[in-house]
Write a structure and sequence with these properties.
Layout lengths: L2 H26 L2 H6 L1 H53 L4 H21 L10 H14 L5 H27 L5 H21 L3 H25 L1 H4 L3 H5 L2
Length: 240
């Protein structure tokens, strides 16, 4: 399912839930009570909307920046992997064979790691493969100045690969669960307030617009926070 279709389904489901919430609240809370508390509801809604709008805007901008950083990091990691593969071919056997095999394993495991964001970092095999690359290159005994330079170049390539992998790992960290509770709780509070006070058709339209905008904003934050699940960096993964 494409990210666009998932976004539409989320928005439609949220609007349907908001309308159902309105229908239930209209039966529970009388219009007289709504009018009596209208001035309080207006103040609460204004303060809540201001705080929530700032929070969503801040998180959305931050998530967009993180997506760009993740894409750049993956691109650099891809280049470092390609450079290391070329350097490995210049070594004499058996070093070239062992290093090339380690590069191929890293390539496959990196794709697996990117394709499964929920995999714990402790379960990743990439640190062990990187350690094997360092040992293979360090164990090589140069017999000529050119081989000494080749060894130094290979060590630099492995180091760059390890650095970019760690950078990618930290640049794709998800938002804390507490932040999601605040986002979802704030959205629910505003939708409930509007649902209670929307006793006319125009109020229903306001409720629909509010639910649609909030759900779309939260879905965007989710997609940018989990770019692999959302398919936002699928092209980068395929190019590895």
């Amino acid at each position: 399912m494409s990210i666009g279709l998932r976004g539409i389904l989320v928005v439609v489901a949220t609007i349907a839930g908001a309308l159902a919430c309105r229908a239930i609240l209209q039966r529970i809370v009388s219009r007289e009570r709504v009018r009596e508390a209208e001035w309080v509801g207006d103040m609460v809604m204004e303060a809540l909307a201001s705080l929530y709008g700032v929070l969503v805007a801040f998180l959305l901008a931050g998530a967009w920046d993180r997506l760009g950083d993740a894409r750049n990091t993956i691109a650099i990691e891809i280049n470092a992997l390609a450079d290391l593969r070329q350097v490995a071919a210049l070594f004499p056997p058996p070093t070239s064979t062992r290093l090339a095999a380690a590069v191929d394993r890293y390539h496959q495991r990196a794709i697996d790691e990117l394709s499964h964001e929920h995999t714990p970092r402790e379960a990743s095999e990439l640190p062990a493969i990187l350690g094997e690359m360092f040992r293979v290159v360090a164990a090589f005994e140069p017999r000529a100045p050119a081989e000494t330079q080749l060894q130094a170049l290979a060590l630099d390539a492995v180091k760059d690969l390890a650095d970019q992998r760690r950078t990618r790992e930290w640049s794709t960290q998800p938002l804390p669960g507490l932040v999601w509770w605040i986002l979802i709780g704030g959205a629910a509070a505003m939708i409930v307030l509007v649902a209670i006070s929307s006793s006319v058709r125009l109020g229903v339209l306001y409720l629909v617009l509010l639910a649609g905008v909030i759900s779309l904003a939260l879905f965007s934050i989710y997609a940018l926070t989990y770019p692999v699940r959302a398919g936002l960096i699928a092209a980068a993964i395929r190019s590895m």
